[in-house]
Write a structure and sequence with these properties.
Actin, Chain A, domain 4, alpha+beta, Heat Shock Protein 90, 3-stranded antiparallel beta sheet, 2 domains, 8-stranded mixed beta sheet
Length: about 375
């Protein structure tokens, strides 16, 4: 399915109000998850679980933002807040193996080499447009997965809502940060009314390439990796953050003072309490550097504290736990550049003494 998103009344009070409502909805998504999980538990107890409808809808004609695919409205509205009137984006709903998946240019078009890829459907959005308020041009290439399959429809809806919220936040951050970073390139009202033929010395267009992949999926576990490849207009380099989301469909209710959904779990949830797993991960990272022929102390620079290790992003695969370091933090062997994230795959077998067989790892162990 392919549709065109046409910006309408961009920047108007009604558009901004609509986006504000959607931002509030995104912030409240963890409350929705709790409520929906209770529904799932009730349905499981009754022995009746609805199956998600994954039948693609028919191709749509050119759409106004206000009537564009309701399920993707959060993401589309984030783009529409910055897209000038009359300029367009193309949106596609694709099967994971579709030949139309991806784009030219190497800006996050491929899946990570360390990920197997368990996506069902993907949403792909591409557009190029000129800013009305700044001397900026933008190239957007956005792809994120949707959960489908033989599972409770409410679980799929919860997971897809969280993924959309993170994608929308990344879009807003890209535009807002670039405008704040180069605020002196803002156009005056007179310049906006002119033909804008005079350029203020900014020769670099901006791009945002969001690549989402499902690193593992089974009947109880779903692990998502989102990479935000980006460069602000006019910038020499821009940090490229990652977001990881790990879901245990039937996890225990969260009784700790964490402001997070119960289905989402963190790195400490994978390990036995008081097992010293943090120190073991530090040792694994250091061993990888030694095995690569380098001195770990030359690169780690005191980053690997217990607190830092506990906060690391991660995804799960069939055989490995993959750690992800944000830009300008700790670097693993093979690291490229300061603005880029870094990754380290660790086989589960290497962590057997530390992984909790009753935690989310049980969904790997018993699969």
């Amino acid at each position: 399915m392919t549709v065109l998103l046409v910006a309408s009344a961009c920047g108007s009070s009604s558009s901004s109000a609509e986006l504000d409502d959607l931002r509030i909805e995104a912030l409240d998504v963890h409350e929705q998850i709790v409520e929906l999980q209770e529904q799932v538990a009730e349905l499981n107890a009754q022995g009746t679980v609805p199956v998600a409808n994954t039948t693609p809808v028919a191709p749509a004609a050119t759409l106004d933002l206000a009537t564009a695919l309701p399920d993707e409205l959060l993401v589309l509205s984030a783009i529409g807040e910055f897209m000038p009137d009359g300029q367009v984006c193309e949106e596609q709903l694709l099967a994971a193996d579709s030949p139309e998946r991806g784009w030219e240019g190497g800006r996050g078009s491929g899946s990570p080499t360390w990920a197997d890829g368990f996506e069902g459907l993907v949403v792909q959005i591409t557009c190029e447009f000129e800013s009305e308020e700044f001397w900026f041009s933008h190239d957007l290439s956005i792809r994120y997965p949707l959960k489908t399959g033989e599972a409770a429809g409410v679980i799929n809806s919860v997971i897809n809502s969280v993924v959309r919220s993170e994608v929308a936040k990344g879009i807003l951050d890209y535009f807002n940060d670039s405008r704040e970073r180069f605020s002196d390139h803002r156009l005056t009202e007179e310049e906006q009314r002119s033909d804008q033929t005079q350029h203020r010395g900014c020769g670099y267009p901006g791009y945002l390439a969001i690549s989402g992949v499902v690193t593992y999926s089974n009947d109880g576990l779903y692990s998502v990796y989102l990479q935000f490849g980006q460069n602000h207009p006019c910038a020499n380099t821009t940090a490229k953050p990652v977001v990881t989301l790990n879901f245990d469909f039937f996890g225990k209710p969260d009784t700790r003072a964490y402001d997070r959904p119960r289905m989402l779990f963190d790195l400490p949830d994978l390990f036995k309490d008081d097992s010293g797993w943090e120190i073991e991960l530090v040792e694994v990272i250091r061993r990888r550097w030694v095995e690569s022929g380098e001195d770990p102390d030359k690169y780690l620079m005191g980053w690997l504290t217990v607190e830092f290790v506990r906060s690391l992003d991660f995804t799960m695969g069939p055989d490995t736990l993959v750690l992800h370091a944000q830009p300008y933090t700790v670097w693993f062997p093979g690291w490229c550049c300061g603005a880029s994230p870094d990754h380290l795959a660790i086989p589960y077998d290497e962590l057997t003494d530390y992984l909790d067989p009753d935690g989310p790892y049980r969904l790997i162990l018993n699969n």
